[in-house]
Input
Amino acid sequence: MHMRSWLLALVALLALAISLCLAEQPPADIASHVPVAGQKISKLLRNATAGDAAAQFLLGRAYETGNGAPQDFGEAAHWYMQAANRGQAEAQNNLASLYVRGLGVPTDYQQASNWFLRAAVQKFAPAEFNLGLLYSQGMGVRRDEAEALRWYRKAAERGYSVAQNNLGILFREGTGVPQDCKQAVAWFRKAAKKGLAQAEFNLGALYESGCGVPANNGEAAKWYALAAERGTPEAENNLGYLYREGKGVPASNVEAIRWFQRAAEQDFPAAQANLGVMYLRGLGVPRDTSTAYMWLTLAGNAGKHMLSKLQLPVEKLAAARHSAQTWAAQHRSPTHLPQGASSAALLP
Output
């Protein structure tokens, strides 16, 4: 059994998207994060009541975040609406995001698209990005990748990093536009230079595959490391894989274990499977079959194939399931669904 045939490296690109649409993605920056800036709520309330749109927006933001006021999404929606009706783009964007998430208002994607559009035509980059997300998912508007690309491009050209990342993905995948890896690299690089972890990972993936740039595992490892230091489990897993294989970095089972462990503790299936293999083979850690079986069980579909090859006795499988259930009870929320590993996203 060759180690390489067991390890899993993620090859799918990471997009920033509304969490309600793509459960596997982190929430996008769909709302403006302008802080209350120390203004007293009483003063904001007086100014907001007098019709000051900027104060209305800041008051809504205070209620949405609980920064300076008790968190109250209904009040946030009320004040955002007041400012939005006065043409305040930030408020229009944030009100739309409440409609997407169903916070303080009923979930209503059509209302969300309308408010995002009103902010987007004012050249407000977060709203342009968000409108692109809605078009990419067909939420409140017809699904239209060309329109998604058009709005992403507008926001990207204003320097909005999450839009630059998603635009890069469309070019890489040839979605709504002819496939162009060089364009993908260019947009990922713009976003990565601003410290966006998803773009750092995506740029690393293109260097590893040689798409749009000459294949270079050293460059791949560099960008994976930047994303991994920001806690991106996909990057942690792939960096561990490069250390295990000695690609672009000195071969090191200890480093491989470190990065697999970090990703596995975030409940990332490929890393859990890889960590299980390392424990099973005693690579970088003392051999520990019980721990190996636990991680392979936690990995869901990513570990199921490996476990089936091992042909474990029933009692060992039962012990592994018990250990996995104990770990899951401590690390997963009650509503968490175990993730399987998509065969399209894993490179055996």
Notes: The chain has a mean pLDDT of 86. The two ends are 13 Å apart (CA to CA). The first helix runs from residue 41 to 49.
